[in-house]
Amino acid sequence: MADDVLEFRQALGAHAPDPLESRRLLDGARRRWPTITVDASGFGALVAAHLPQAAQGLGAIHLEDLALVWACLEGQKPAHDVFVTTFDAAVRQVALRGGVDADELSSRVFQKLLVRDGDKAPSLGRYAGLGPLKSFVLVSAMRLLVDLRRGARPQDSSVDDEAWVELATTVAVDEQGPSARCDWAQLKPHLATALEEAIAALPVRQRNVLRLHYVEDVSAEAIARMYGVHRATTTRWLTDAREQVFAHVQQRLRLELAVGTQTLDSVNRDLANGIELSLPGAFRAAAE
Fold first, then answer.
1. Which of 52, 41, 35 is nearest to 26 (CA)?
2. Looking at residue 122, what DSSP letter applies?
3. What residue ranges do the domains of the chain occupy?
4. Cβ of 179: how many Cβ atoms within 10 Å?
5. Is the model's pLDDT at 183 over the cut of 70?
């Protein structure tokens, strides 16, 4: 078993923790998902690929969630089964709140996340471990919910920002308590203007890659080919652009509303998800 620690550390390269911490991380992932196989080298390579996006290094990555994602992308059936079992109830709650058929939304979400569509990789490959996997799944469910409610294909639908914020608020209340709804009620009316300003403030390249990814649904790999760079580079561009938008929105909310750090901290994750969900609509609004 010592060999797998060595393989894990070799895959992580300069970012590798000491052997004892590496053993703890590997064992933690395996205990969390006992029915899947976590290959130390392969899993380590996936973690290493996402480390440049994590400003705080290895400690910023949700390693146990990323282990499940790695196994799913490797095509392990037990991993697919665990993934669906773990998140199906949350997806069905989104369907219930959004007034669509739960079976249909669940089928669409897990098909999109887990199954390759021709040359297009499963959408789960976009998960970088920088937030909880549950939040990533909910974002996917919320996007597909709007498509179902409008009877439109993803590329033809526009984002219903009110629906996004309401769903994010409901999820926040479930996980953080009733005070989260008060926080969202305070922030919601100012988000659209803050987001519009944040997008306008981006450098041209970052604005373009966000538009390609969120409006045109172009993958990071395809964007990399367009710019003649490695996929990891465009993934980093997307991450940097999202972080700049998020920071700008936070700053605007603090200045406009005198919102304190405690209030923002209480909704930070859901604010980030709400901003990401609103990006397609914000770009479309700017183009009109």
1. 41
2. P
3. 2-74, 177-288
4. 13
5. no
